[in-house]
Design goal:
alpha/beta, kinase, 9-stranded mixed sheet, Hyethyz_kinase
Length: 269
């Protein structure tokens, strides 16, 4: 393992806790509370602001913008596009979670509009969503991916080069790239698939990490590694879904650089 890269990755955790980045979240109603709480435990400050009349001005006060398309309604759509425009004007990093984009064509229209008038620094989705965005066939059912990791890194690299951003595809293994540097994370737990919102919480953490670091690739690797190692720790203490969900937030709070270094299973590409 490249220890220089790992040192840079684990340091992001301390940067988040020192800077306490304000993460402006336009996210879905199913997981909004979990996203806010996991951001607090990670060391960031959440703001769940989605009113169209407020988002343009609020973005410029924020450290990062997280857009999740999970339960998209008309006001959220308009707010997300306007917020991304403000992020481009004020140079605020944007993390996009293209939830169910492979199942709902409308979401692609919104993504294209955001790319047209705003900006995206990180796209974080499950493997099925990322393959779909990269123009490949994918195995999805609603918001869930049943895709394997075969070809996932290549799709991430193609999408990253197309949109000039960091791309992460999550699954049994997680694939992250900025088109030049790539990492495959082999940490995690199957219990993530038994609770609603683990992907949404991860997207929020990506926003916090990107709000604390200029290096969006390293920041995204830290967020995913942090989520996975916390998940592994939570599963040791709570191996049923309800208690796991609560313990996960506790374990995010208890993370340290040392825990990340000791537990990391990363293959650098």
């Amino acid at each position: 393992m490249n220890n220089i890269n790992l040192d840079k990755v684990t340091k992001i955790l301390s940067e988040v806790r020192n800077k306490i980045p304000l993460v402006h979240c336009i996210t879905n109603y199913v997981t909004i509370n979990d996203c806010a709480n996991i951001l607090l435990s990670y060391g960031a400050s959440p703001a769940m602001c989605e009113a169209y009349d407020e988002v343009f001005d609020f973005v410029k006060l924020s450290s990062a913008l997280y857009i999740n398309l999970g339960t998209l309604n008309k006001e959220q759509e308009q707010a997300a596009v306007l917020a991304s425009t403000s992020a481009k004007i004020h140079d605020i990093p944007v993390v996009l979670d293209p939830v169910a984009c492979a199942a709902v064509p409308k979401k692609i229209q919104v993504i294209n509009r955001i790319l047209q008038v705003g900006k995206i620094d990180v796209i974080k989705g499950n493997i099925g969503e990322i393959k779909f965005l990269a123009g490949q066939s994918s195995n999805v059912k609603g918001v869930d991916s049943f895709d394997t990791g075969e070809g996932a890194l290549e799709c991430c690299i193609a999408l990253s080069q197309k949109y000039k951003c960091t791309v992460a595809a999550t699954g049994k293994k997680d694939f992250i790239t900025d088109g030049k540097r790539s990492a495959v994370i082999e940490n995690g737990t199957e219990m993530f698939t038994k609770v609603t919102g683990s992907g949404c919480m991860l997207g929020a953490l990506c926003g916090a990490a990107c709000g604390a670091s200029e290096d969006k690739f390293t920041a995204t690797v830290n967020a995913i590694l942090s989520m996975n190692i916390a998940g592994e720790e939570a599963f040791k203490a709570a191996n049923t879904p309800g208690s796991f969900r609560v313990k996960l937030i506790d374990c995010i709070y208890q993370l340290s650089e040392e825990k990340l270094k000791e537990g990391a299973k990363i293959v650098w590409k």
